[in-house]
Structure formats: structure tokens, C-alpha cells
């Protein structure tokens, strides 16, 4: 989470400093309307900077993954930028529009304005000023729409397809805000560092919005394939799919994931559960947790999933296992095990993957797992040469740091990988950091919304 917080703080700080360097604050007086003028300008700059970066993050660019430490981190930052948009947008609305309602109701009295200088009717500034009323109305109603769409996006119970379409509407709303900002930003600001930076951000954000509206996000990383095998694993709520891309798949690293798209359904992210063999065949382990995944389980039971054509987009993710530590601790919670099975598969069946730390321990945290699934995992772990510890919460308390203490010989030379429920991961991370504040704790934030 530190990179996410650092990037968010750096963005807000940079936008603030650029604004301060570009504005003449000598006219700021201790009066409501004097403060209002500067707050409206500042909050507007913050709002457009935040929204622009959020739009670019949604493009799933490889460069963004490298900067944020993985697509999961990029989307977590994207989420926090959405929350920041709500907060800053509400602040901007109050000072810009709420003040006008207070004036109309008689609570506030607007001071008299001086006469504005005459402009050349053919100038760009005159053209922008002529659009002021339209820009104000468009911005106000765009904010109301954006407010509803962002709240909808943050509700995890909303079906994924509706969530995806709401984000397309957000892209359209963003373009309205660009128009609003171009017209209402002080004209003399455009040649300042603040205006130049804002113009660049809004240009990039507008390109990203158009890409989103035309469904071009990730298009170059998509390949077509066919499901050649669909079977129910020993856990009756989990299915394993094998997709043949007929050599089109570019390959992936252990621990990465991809977006899997079915006809008539929005693509969903799933972990690649087998190592890359270079033959264009890839596997996914999918747990029935929602409407779409339950439908996949039912189709597998009916035998109708095999043979279906799909699209695969990726690979994504930075959940790699290369590390110089002499010990590795892997912690899998539920279906989070899929993030580790590809590496287990590589260690068990590919000689080139045998370069590993002296000691690896996998803790698999589950509840009432079937004996068959545990037996399969034990066999794979044995072939991979790693130690397996099964923590069944139906029989005992959940995993805690004392369990890790029992196997770790040197916390100073240990790295931890975690994939599972968010709260569980945060609790473990805090406990592990008490042993070694600088320990590498790799956590997959597998929440794309």
C-alpha cells in the first residue's frame, strides 16, 4: 500500500505546488467571496488532475504496472482517486454552486463586481467567455451524474457488467468536465506551469476516455481461444478451465492473471493457475462466488462450457517469486491458492524453474476442504520440494503469526507472499511487521473494483 499512498500524496502535492506557483495570492482577503474565488479555482484544478490520472490508470498500460507495482495496485489507486473525486467534487460544488443557492435564499449577499475589460470579439478568450453559462450548467449536471456513477461503482454488490458500463458513462462525463474546465479556468492561467500541466493531463485523460468509450482498453493484448477442457475440481465450487489459444498467447510468469471474456459477458480477471509451457494453452481455477461464476459452474456441470470460444487479455500482474531471501513464506486464503499453483506447477515439472530459495513453506488457509483436494495439493507440493501446512478454520483458529514463527528460522532473511481476503492479509502483515519492520510482504490486491 505504500506505493499507492506515495503516488496519491505526490500527485496532490504536485498539483497544489503548481497552482500556488501560478496564482497571484495577493488579492486573497479574509472575506467569504475572496476565499471562494481561490477555492473554486484550486478545487477545480485538483478535481481535473485527479480525474485525468484515474482515466489514464484505467488503460491497463504496462508502464502503469511498472510504476505502481502491478495492475492490482493500479486499480487500488484508481479506486482511491475515485473517492478523492467525490470529496473534492463536493467541495468544488459547494463553493461554486452552493454559494449561489445561499445568495438566492438571502443567507449571503454578493458584493458588487467591477466592470470587466472589453475583449476583442474575435479572440479565443472572448469565445471561451461566451460559453461560460453553458459550461456552468454542463458541469453542474455532470457532477450529479458522476456522483451517482461513482457511488454505483463503489458498491461491490452491483453486477460486474453494470459496473463496466457505468465506467463508460464516467468516461463520457469526464469529457464534459474537460469542456467545463477549459472554459472556466482563468484564461491567463493556461501559459503558467499550472495551466500547462493541466492541459497535458486533460489531453491524456481525454484520449483515455475515448479509448474507454470505444472499448479499446487492452485490445492489443487480447487473443482468441477455445475452452478445450472444463472440469469441477475436488472442491465442488471450483472449476478448472483449459483454454487453447492456438499459439497466440504471448506467455506469462507464475503468479500473473488475465481477463477471460465469454460471449455476451464482460471480461473478468482470473489468476493463471498453471505455469507457461510455451504451447499456447493456459489454465484458470475459478470459484463460484457471484452470478457469472455460478453460471460457469452450472455450464460445467451440464457439459456445455467445453468448446466455447473466449477472449483472453493479458497477462497482468507483478506477483513474481524471484527474491534473494533464503526463506519464502507463501500464504493462500481460499481461492487465493490459484496465485501459487502456477509456481508449484513450474517447480514440480520444469527443471528451469528449480532455482529456488533454500526453504519454501506454503500455508493453505481453507475451511472444510475436501480430502481429495488436499491430497492433490500435497502431491504437487511434494513434487515441487516445498513444505505444505494446511490451516482448516473448521477445525482450529485461523492462521496467526505464531504459526509462521514455528517454521521461520530467520525473520531477517525471509520474504512473505500473500493472496487471500483483504482483512486477513492486513492483519497478518501488521503482525509480521512486528518481527521485522522492513520485511518484504508481497500482497496481491485482487480486487479490480
Structure description:
This protein has 449 residues and is an alpha/beta fold. The protein folds into three domains: 2-213, Four Helix Bundle (Hemerythrin (Met), subunit A); 219-316, Elongation Factor Tu (Ef-tu), domain 3, CATH 2.40.30; 327-443, 3-Layer(aba) Sandwich (Rossmann fold). Helices cover 49% and strands 16% of the residues. It is built from 13 helices and eleven strands. Strand 1 and strand 2 form a beta hairpin. The mean pLDDT is 88. InterPro entries: FAD-bd_8 (IPR013112), FAD-bd_FR_type (IPR017927), Fe3_Rdtase_TM_dom (IPR013130), FNR_nucleotide-bd (IPR039261), MRET (IPR050415), Riboflavin_synthase-like_b-brl (IPR017938). It is found in: Membrane. Pfam families: FAD_binding_8 (PF08022), Ferric_reduct (PF01794). Residues 220-322 form the FAD-binding FR-type domain.
Question: Which keywords apply here?
Answer:
3 domains, Elongation Factor Tu (Ef-tu), domain 3, 449 residues, alpha/beta, Rossmann fold, 6-stranded antiparallel beta sheet, 5-stranded parallel beta sheet, 13 helices, Four Helix Bundle (Hemerythrin (Met), subunit A)
Any chance you could write out the topology, listing elements then pairs?
Layout: H1 2-22, H2 32-57, H3 62-68, H4 71-104, H5 124-130, H6 132-154, H7 160-184, H8 193-213, E1 222-232, E2 238-244, E3 257-262, E4 268-271, E5 281-287, H9 291-302, E6 309-316, E7 327-333, H10 338-349, E8 359-366, H11 371-384, E9 387-392, H12 401-405, E10 414-419, H13 422-435, E11 440-443
Amino acid at each position: 500500500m505504500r506505493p499507492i499512498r506515495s503516488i496519491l500524496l505526490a500527485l496532490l502535492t504536485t498539483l497544489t505546488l503548481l497552482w500556488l506557483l501560478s496564482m497571484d495570492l495577493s488579492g486573497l482577503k479574509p472575506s467569504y467571496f475572496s476565499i471562494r474565488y481561490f477555492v473554486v479555482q484550486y478545487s477545480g484544478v485538483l478535481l481535473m488532475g485527479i480525474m485525468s490520472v484515474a482515466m489514464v490508470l484505467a488503460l491497463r498500460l504496462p508502464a502503469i504496472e511498472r510504476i505502481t507495482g502491478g495492475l492490482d495496485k493500479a486499480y487500488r489507486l484508481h479506486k482511491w482517486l475515485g473517492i478523492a473525486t467525490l470529496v473534492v467534487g463536493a467541495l468544488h460544488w459547494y463553493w461554486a454552486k452552493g454559494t449561489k443557492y445561499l445568495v438566492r435564499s438571502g443567507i449571503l449577499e454578493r458584493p458588487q463586481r467591477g466592470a470587466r475589460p472589453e475583449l476583442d470579439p474575435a479572440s479565443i478568450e472572448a469565445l471561451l467567455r461566451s460559453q461560460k453559462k453553458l459550461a456552468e450548467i454542463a458541469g453542474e449536471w455532470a457532477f450529479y451524474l458522476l456522483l451517482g456513477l461513482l457511488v454505483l461503482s463503489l458498491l461491490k454488490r452491483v453486477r460486474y457488467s453494470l459496473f463496466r458500463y457505468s465506467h463508460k458513462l464516467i468516461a463520457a462525463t469526464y469529457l464534459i468536465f474537460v469542456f467545463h474546465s477549459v472554459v472556466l479556468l482563468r484564461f491567463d492561467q493556461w501559459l503558467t506551469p499550472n495551466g500547462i500541466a493541466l492541459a497535458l493531463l486533460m489531453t491524456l485523460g481525454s484520449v483515455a476516455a475515448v479509448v474507454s468509450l470505444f472499448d479499446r482498453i487492452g485490445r492489443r493484448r487480447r487473443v482468441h481461444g477455445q475452452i478445450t477442457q472444463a472440469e469441477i475440481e475436488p472442491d465442488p465450487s471450483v472449476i478448472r478451465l483449459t483454454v487453447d489459444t492456438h499459439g497466440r498467447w504471448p506467455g506469462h510468469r507464475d503468479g500473473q492473471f488475465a481477463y477471460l471474456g465469454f460471449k455476451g459477458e464482460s471480461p473478468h480477471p482470473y489468476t493463471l493457475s498453471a505455469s507457461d509451457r510455451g504451447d499456447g494453452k493456459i489454465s484458470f481455477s475459478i470459484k463460484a462466488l457471484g452470478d457469472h461464476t455460478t453460471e460457469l459452474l452450472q455450464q460445467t456441470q451440464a457439459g456445455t462450457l467445453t468448446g466455447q470460444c473466449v477472449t483472453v487479455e493479458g497477462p497482468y500482474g507483478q506477483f513474481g517469486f524471484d527474491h534473494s531471501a533464503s526463506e519464502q513464506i507463501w500464504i493462500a486464503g481460499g481461492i487465493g491458492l490459484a496465485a501459487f499453483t502456477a509456481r508449484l506447477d513450474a517447480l514440480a515439472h520444469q527443471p528451469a524453474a528449480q532455482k529456488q530459495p533454500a526453504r519454501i513453506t506454503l500455508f493453505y488457509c481453507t475451511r472444510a476442504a475436501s480430502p481429495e483436494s488436499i491430497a492433490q495439493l500435497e502431491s504437487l507440493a511434494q513434487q515441487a520440494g516445498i513444505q505444505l501446512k494446511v490451516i482448516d478454520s473448521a477445525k482450529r483458529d485461523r492462521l496467526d503469526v505464531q504459526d509462521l514463527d514455528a517454521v521461520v528460522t530467520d525473520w531477517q532473511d525471509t520474504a512473505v507472499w500473500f493472496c487471500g481476503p483483504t482483512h486477513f492479509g492486513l492483519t497478518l502483515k501488521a503482525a509480521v511487521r512486528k518481527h521485522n519492520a522492513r520485511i518484504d510482504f508481497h500482497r496481491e490486491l485482487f480486487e479490480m473494483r
